[in-house]
């Protein structure tokens, strides 16, 4: 199957290459430039966003290069001229990238990624950087709300079938960072080590001559700790059959339809009456963070979430932008840098390279996102938010996925309680702009 | 970059494999089975859906197999046992697939894909089939509305940065099927031959010492037929500079901000006054089908659409399901087939394999989607909707992408005028169920 994955270089908008060609010709391609990734706002009145995709981005930047076949496509279709193709042939990103570490929270105008290099090398990464971060941050931001709503109950990500087959793998990864427990997606297990889960669908029951035969077959194969799906025909009869066949050691039953609160209570009572007091109840079926929260007081032991997770629960993209905020006046490595910003109606941007700290009060609760133009001067209660990810073209920011997951849990716990509100409102932290010292 | 693309087999929910293992053990794995893909409803009161992704699906089914590394992952992690792994090692889909051809329209309950094989071989394809069709149909369905709203004006797809980097490639392909003219995505050009477009961003203007320098550089590189972006600073001044430098042969100007209707009228007047009567106006910036329609009476010559295209304009997934509708009573190839359906609350499905025809009135306008259980008996004014895609495991339904694009245009033209209404309402065609003859 042709996924064109020898390189990530063509996962790019054509205009990045036409700009490169024009800049090479006009002599501006070598000017040092700083691009920043940020969100102008959080979608749908959310309280915070979640940075995810950083690990994927570092892999993608390493794989960004122009091999012979790629160059032939570009020149053969008149997309770039020969001098540009010669430049591309030698291309490796040799600049610097700083960013919020994966799992960190972000707010409007948080500079979640900063790319510094020549204009030529940094502009080429725009599309790929945004694709990865816009997707993965959107999923993680929705997933984190679901995880907070679920509390200590485990969450299974099962949305693969509702999104692009490769986006599904990234979605499973982002959901895990944000607090999901497992995924149905096997490739996410293989590629990223995300724990996988799943037992059976209605089709399995329908395949057999009776529900009893189907349950028997599943128990024979997966053991009595498995999860039996009990709503293909009649839930009460199915639960009875399930406990009769598996005994009180039955792991769990899954309910995928109906009024989940009502059915879950009824099934809990029935299981308890049958002596299966340790058998868990897993619910699935069009759940989102609101549906999960609504089941908090019911005897549910775990949730499976599909569609709403992979579609970002109403915000399928994080609306992050990649903006040139500073560039040199000339091609020399030490040419002075100048802040730049467009003045388009309704879409102004703030020139100059930024740094950011999270400010804490005396009780260890975060109280502000402080974005500094110029050199940062962090106080004792400030956490500097950007870390080095790529230094002189070398990836230095790789970490295990578990570290991002652990970080996210800790970071959300530091936010003020309003962060956990599912209702629409203001961001949990205000973004404050200050002028730092002159950049060295 | 690890995209795991030697095989598509792990782009699959774990439960497909646990069901396989249990069915192999219980002796039901070899029963003949029929699965159908359909939508219970169209999202957001849309009038029709668009089938897309078929070509990608056929590639993905061909690439579905279990190599040594894949099997090692599955057995090493306790996902399948050794007998199941041995079965998987020999797996190639050997059954039959029929489907609506790519670009065709669909309605609630249209059987857009039918997969027939043993339960074992057909159940394994569920996740991958749904991922591809749910994504691509969602994008194409939104894109078709935008294309109808744009009329004869060209549409540029430019949403790559707002979605997963591989979903972006598929989105560009689906948009092209549904009527978009070009895409910004280079990989869609390389992989599928979709025409690509793009010239420059605000960063290019900001890189240069002045807008004049930037325009000069772009014209030197791309010629006077290029599109200059005129809203970085002051639109009126930019248009004057653009025509001064390029002359009246300037290809186009692009406006990405402000009240597009107002600005486009002003820019048209200015261009005409400057003698650039042939210079086109392209508008971009948060457009969707409604925004496009609202600009119908303005002097706009083309639209670029990003976010709303790749997110399905409010419906990022097509909500297609893959349901077992019939299966054999025993493992023999000639065992009688039995219709099956679950009875879950609120999610009933209709048992038995279906066929479908589109029925036309005497004027060549479509008037009904007729779904037949049993053998179809098409009348003279009926078009049979399913075509063979895979026969005995062999792909037979491949076609050039241009054929799907051409088909879509023709099919939409056959629908009643209500199909073109952007407002929420009933599907453009009613779905009628009839019983056909007994299946041979």
From TrEMBL, chains A, B:
One of its GO terms (cellular component) is cytosol. Residues 340-357 have a biased composition (Basic residues). It catalyses: 5-phospho-alpha-D-ribose 1-diphosphate + nicotinate + ATP + H2O = nicotinate beta-D-ribonucleotide + ADP + phosphate + diphosphate. InterPro entries: Aldolase_TIM, NAPRTase_N, Nic_PRibTrfase-Fam, Nic_PRibTrfase_pncB, Nicotinate_pribotase-like_C, Quinolinate_PRibosylTrfase_C. Keywords: Glycosyltransferase, Ligase, Phosphoprotein, Pyridine nucleotide biosynthesis, Transferase. Catalyzes the first step in the biosynthesis of NAD from nicotinic acid, the ATP-dependent synthesis of beta-nicotinate D-ribonucleotide from nicotinate and 5-phospho-D-ribose 1-phosphate. Belongs to the NAPRTase family. This is Nicotinate phosphoribosyltransferase.
């Amino acid at each position: 199957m042709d996924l064109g994955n020898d390189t990530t270089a063509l996962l790019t908008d054509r205009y990045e290459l036409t700009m490169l060609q024009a800049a090479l010709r006009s002599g501006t391609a070598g000017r040092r430039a700083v691009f920043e990734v940020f969100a102008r706002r959080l979608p749908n009145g959310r309280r915070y966003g979640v940075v995810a995709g950083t690990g994927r981005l570092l892999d993608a930047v390493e794989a960004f290069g122009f091999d012979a076949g790629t160059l032939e496509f570009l020149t053969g279709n008149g997309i770039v001229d020969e001098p540009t193709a010669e430049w591309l042939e030698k291309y490796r990103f040799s600049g610097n990238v700083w960013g919020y570490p994966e799992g960190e929270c972000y707010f409007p105008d948080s500079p979640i990624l900063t790319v510094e290099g020549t204009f030529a090398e940094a502009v080429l990464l725009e599309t790929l950087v945004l694709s990865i971060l816009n997707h993965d941050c959107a999923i993680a931001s929705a997933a984190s709300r679901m995880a907070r709503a679920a509390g200590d109950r485990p969450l299974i990500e099962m949305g693969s079938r509702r999104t692009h087959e490769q986006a599904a793998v990234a979605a499973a990864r982002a959901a895990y960072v944000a607090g999901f427990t497992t995924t149905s997606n096997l490739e996410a297990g293989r590629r990223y080590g995300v724990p996988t889960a799943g037992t059976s669908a209605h089709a399995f029951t329908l395949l057999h001559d009776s529900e009893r035969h189907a349950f028997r077959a599943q128990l024979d194969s997966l053991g009595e700790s498995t999860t039996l799906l009990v709503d293909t025909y009649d839930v009460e009869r199915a639960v009875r059959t399930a406990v009769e066949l598996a005994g009180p050691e039955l792991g769990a039953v899954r309910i995928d339809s109906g009024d989940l609160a009502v059915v879950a209570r009824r099934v809990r009572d029935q299981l308890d009456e049958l002596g299966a007091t340790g058998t868990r109840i897993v619910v699935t079926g069009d759940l989102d963070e609101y549906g999960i929260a609504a089941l908090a007081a019911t005897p549910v032991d775990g949730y499976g979430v599909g569609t709403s997770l992979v579609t970002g629960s109403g915000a399928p993209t994080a609306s992050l932008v990649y903006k040139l905020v500073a560039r040199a006046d000339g091609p020399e490595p030490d040419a002075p840098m100048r802040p730049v910003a467009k003045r388009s109606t309704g879409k102004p941007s703030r020139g100059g390279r930024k740094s950011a700290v999270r400010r804490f009060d005396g009780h260890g609760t975060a109280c502000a996102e402080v974005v500094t133009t110029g050199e940062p001067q962090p106080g004792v209660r400030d956490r500097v938010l950007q870390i080095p990810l790529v230094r002189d073209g070398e990836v230095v920011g790789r970490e295990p996925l578990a570290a991002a997951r652990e970080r996210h849990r800790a970071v959300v716990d530091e936010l003020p309680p309003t962060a956990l509100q599912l209702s629409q409102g203001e961001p949990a932290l205000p973004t404050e702009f200050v002028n730092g010292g002159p950049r060295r």
